[in-house]
Specification:
Strands 1-2 form a two-stranded antiparallel sheet. Helix 7 packs antiparallel against helix 8. With 240 residues, the chain is mostly helical. The N and C termini lie far apart (41 Å). It has one domain. The model has no long low-confidence stretch (mean pLDDT 84). The chain has eight helices and two strands, in the order βαααααααβα.
Amino acid sequence: MQEYNRVSARLQASLLFLATVALLVPSAIKDVGGDSAAAFTGQLSVGLSVLLITAYALSTLFSLKTHPEIFASAEHGGDDGVPMPIGVALGTLAGVTVLVALVSEVFVESVQDAAVSFGMTPAFVGFIVVALVGGAAEMASAFSGARKNRLDLSVGIALGSASQVALFVAPVLVLLSYVLGPAPMDLRFWPGAVVMMLIATLTASLVTNGGRSTWFVGTLVLMVYLVFAMTLYLLPPSGQ
């Protein structure tokens, strides 16, 4: 039985649910009709992007500045030794981040070509293969933390990285697309993807609500993931 701070996990799950709502609305209201449809979707996506970035910034302020005491770790792992000086730690983090980003980019492109040659569907490659390869470094850190009984670190990496992409990276890409991109990007996605994200968010909320976990809880989460993977692998091209 491993325990972790459920307050932190619930905050990340709540942020994911907020992001899911913001993605669900443009995807659900897509048949506006007339020439105003594109303008409506673009304006709505920009407004939602600003809201999501604001929510992400406020959540960071809440967890790190105003209420850090309620996010105290529940882990029981051993001491890892003398902490690294903050300057060295930040420099190491910056260097490793750049290296991981470069390696991941090359790796993802190679895997995409290999997946197509193996006959994998574009949906499976995008949702499963690229996501797994791109998040390999994060998953390795999460596995390492769990093996050391530092489940707060593992849960924080898993949910934190997902909420960061949903509430910060995607909205920033929408805003930057009006400056750098060949065409504006919006938050309207394939409805099937939004439904899967909603189910994944609800699953994360359910399994993290108790603040403790066992191996069978992890098995159930993996089964949900495999349901998505099997569906996307067998999805005909017309459904993508």
